[in-house]
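Table S5 (text form). Sequence records supplied for joint modeling of the two-component complex.
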Amino acid sequence: MSLLTMILKMSEGLGKTCAIFFLTLLFSLPLGMIVALLRMSKNRIVSFVTRFFITVLRGTPLMLQLLAVTYGPYYLFGAGVSRNKLIPVVIAFSINYAAYFAEIYRGGIESIPVGQYEAAQVLGYTRFQTFMRIILPQVVKRIMPSVTNEVVTLVKDTSMAFTVSYQEMFTIGKQIANSQTSFMPFIVAGVFYYLFNLIVDRVMGRIEKRLDYYK
Amino acid sequence: MPEMKKERSEAILAIRGLQKSFGETAVLRDISLSVEPGNVVSIIGPSGSGKSTLLRCASFLETADGGDILYDGQYALRDGVYASKGDLNRFRTLFGMVFQSFNLFPHYSVMKNICEPPVLRGKDREETREKAVELLRKMGLEGKENAYPCQLSGGQQQRVAIARALALEPEILYFDEPTSALDPELTGEVLKVIRQLADDHMTMVVVTHEMPFARAVSNRVIFMDGGYIVEEGHPEEVFGDPKQERTKQFLANYNR
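The corresponding structure-token record, covering 471 residues in total, follows.
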């Protein structure tokens, strides 16, 4: 198999790689905020349960979580394994990344000086207005570097979908590598991920720059 | 609102028997004071005497344990029990607060810092803008409308914070050590602005360590120590001829 055919075949999986990537961000970024708020809840039970889930999601391999979400329903309830593996893959990724984002958000929220809340309260902002207008924008700026880290990791983690044979780029590459007994597909995959992350880096850098207008 | 009946008092703020503890430590023990319209009251005293806590209780940033707080003769706190959330929000429109650390919103321009709160309260956007420009001129900050707090000196930031509080047209303005984070030069420009407000008969309570300023600007000085009001009176009395031993001691340390 020529290098070009290899590259073309693997690019066919790039759409699916992108699907995992964008859908995971779409769901995990807001879900992480909900988890962070639950984690900081004054209700001790809510906060404790949330903390427990975060430790499980961060303390067990993503690969295991992928397997659990994809095949768990079959083993537990005898339900059929869904034909479209994208759904369980995105669910597993979203939940896993939400746990990480939640802790990043929490760190960001807790780093905002209490004086910001006090000023807002005296000025008549409601709690919701205070969060949306005063706290959240400052949190976003502060956590950008950590979020970028996670997003870069996510690009590479999409390769984990091979464990449930979802036909994204890396899974295809692995199949070619097996049938051709060649290491070349892995090098191609590496280049793909690197280029993908170059773009991610650019985009995140631009967002950070846009938030650079203050302190 | 049946329990809202007016007390016969002209005071904007009246506090009676206010108590506040942090855990085991009593910070305010039986504080009473009232502030009439147009008056400037300075609160002085050593660190930890309860001055700031008093202001923070008056502005609902701390929850008092006992006593009364009345605004315009209406109870915000009665015998240690707070009025409803809605009433407290209504009382919040009566006072403004200037903090030691300014607490401007760093992601907002000067203009937005000043204009957003009134606009959120339903004030006309254009009118608010015009008033903000006027306030900035008064604060000696014309041309800073589009600057961000991080581009301003501490003194300028504090003057923006004062403008932000004034934009809501409060009946009474609280200052919690407004110059403690500033060097002497910047302190001067902020005190000048507060003095101007006093000349315009703005009602104010100022917690401060600036003794000459307190003496020159206020109608009444309160000396606090250990959670009590030790002495109060006209600034010339308190500074010129203090009656209490503790006041003498405190002022002597200052004049050294």
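Note: The interface with chain B takes residues 113, 115-116, 118-125, 129, 133-134, 137-138, 141, 213-215 of chain A (CB under 8 Å).
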